[in-house]
Amino acid sequence: MSFSYTSSQRKGILFLLFIVGFLALYKLIHNSVINNQKILPLEFIKIDKKQSIDNEINYVKNINELDKNPNDWIRNDWKSIGLSEKQINTVLNFKKKLGGFKSKEQLFSCYVLNDFHKKLLDPVVKFEAPLKVEKSKQHFFKIYQLGKPNYQLNLLYDSLYYMKKDGNHCYFLKYSALNIKKHFNNKSITEKDIVKLLIDLDELTLLSKPKNRTEVKIIYINMNTADTNQWKSFNGIGSKRANRIVKYRRLLGGFVSKNQLSEIYGLGDSLIEEIKPKLMLDSLKLNKININDASKKELATHPYISWNLANAILNYKVQHGDYDSLSKIKQIHLVNDDLYRKIVPYITLD
Questions:
Q1: Are residues 293 and 350 located together in one domain of the fold?
Q2: What is the band of 323 on the pLDDT scale with cuts at 50, 70, 90?
Q3: pLDDT for the residue 187
Q4: What is the pTM of this model?
Q5: Euclidean distance between CA atoms 230 and 224, whole angstroms
Q6: In contact, 77 and 83? CB cutoff 8 Å
Q7: Residue 118 neighbours by CB under 8 Å, 6+ apart
Q8: Which structural domain, as residue segments, surrounds residue 50?
Q9: Angle subtended at Cα 223 by Cα 218 and Cα 225, rounded to the nearest 5 degrees
Q10: Are 234 and 240 in contact (CB under 8 A)?
Q11: Would you say 156 and 218 are in contact if contact means Cβ atoms under 8 Å apart?
Q12: In this structure, is residue 110 part of a structural domain?
C-alpha cells in the first residue's frame, strides 16, 4: 500500500520547513550579535553614573589645589569646579561689581552657584580678615590746656590741632623747631625743653586759619611764656608793670590763675578785668619746689611761703621724716585750707 501527500499537504509541509528554517536562522544571527556585543545598555548606565561620581571627586581634588581666596582665581580655576564659560562670565562680572568678594555670603549670592557648588566651596574657601590699618601718628607739643574752648585760637596759627580730654580743651602744634620758636618767642627755649607727644591724627581735629583772614593781629598771650614786650602790647601796661608781672611770675614758678595778677602791685582790678579775655593760661610747666630737699631760703623765696612757714615745713620733716604726701603740710598749724590750695600747685615730693 503506497503512501503519498496531496498537493495541499505538500504545500503545508514546505511552509512549516520555511518557518522552522527562518527561526533557526534568526536565533543564529541573534546569538552571534549578543556574543560580539562588548557593552550592554545597562553597563552604559553604570559607566555614566560612575563618571559623574568621578567628576565630583575630581572637583573636590581641584578645589583643594586652588587658592583659598576666590578673588585670585582665573577662568580655568572656575572651570575646574564645573562652571561653563557663560557662568564664569557671570561670576566675574558679579565680582567686579562688588569690588571683590569679601565673604562667603557675597560669593554664594551669585545665582549661578547652585547647592552643589556651595557645598563644595564652603569648607575650603576662606576670606582673610581685613588688615587693620595702623593709624597715622605724628609728633606734637601741647601749647594750651584750657577749662573752656577758645574759638579764636585758630586765627593765630596756620595749623592748630585740638583734642578734648578729661574735660580739658587741649591745643597742639606739630613738633618742629620753627613752631616752637614762633609759639614761645623765646630764644632760650629749644626743642629739648619741650615734651614731644606721639599722637594719632585721628584723635585730633585740625583747626585751620580762615582763608579770608591771612593776617591777624595777635591779641592773645600766654601768661606763662609772654615776655615784657608782649605784656606791653596791652593798653595800660608799660615797662614797669610788665617787668613786675614777669618778675612775680618767676618768683611764683608760673601762674595757675588769672586772678593772681591782682597780687601784683600797680595792677588795678579794672585793668585786670580788661585784659583777662586776652590772656591764655597754660600751667603745664610750673617750676616747683621739692619740699624734701629745699632749704629754708629756697622755700621762703616763694611769695606764698613766709620765713615762719618755711621753718615749720623743715621742722616737720626733721620730726617725722621725708614727706610722703603733699597733704602732710596741712598738719602744720600755720597752713589752713586756703593757704594749702595756693601752695600745693608749687610744691612736689621729687
A1: yes
A2: very high
A3: 56
A4: 0.43
A5: 11
A6: no
A7: 108
A8: 43-121
A9: 85
A10: no
A11: yes
A12: yes
CB 135 within 8 A of CB 202: yes
Distance of CA 110 to the CA centre of its chain: 33
Q: Is the pLDDT of residue 295 over 70?
A: yes
Select, from the ranges 100-104, 107-111, 330-334, the one with the highest average predicted confidence (pLDDT). 330-334
Domain count for the chain: 4
- Do 29 and 53 lie in one domain? The reply is no
Mean pLDDT taken over the chain: 81
- Strands 168-174 and 159-165 come out as antiparallel
Q: Which residue has the higher pLDDT, 59 or 157?
A: 157
Spatial distance between the Cα atoms of 334 and 306, rounded to a whole number of angstroms: 10
Asked if pLDDT for residue 212 goes beyond 70, the answer is no
Q: Are residues 76 and 117 in the same domain?
A: yes
Distance between CA 158 and CA 173 in Å, rounded?
10
**Residue in 264, 241, 238, 239 with CA at minimum distance from that of residue 251:** 264
Per-residue model confidence (pLDDT) at position 51: 47
Give all strands of the β-sheet with 137-146 in edge-to-edge order: 197-200, 137-146, 168-174, 159-165, 205-208
Q: Pick from 99, 117, 135: which is nearest to 60 by CA?
A: 117
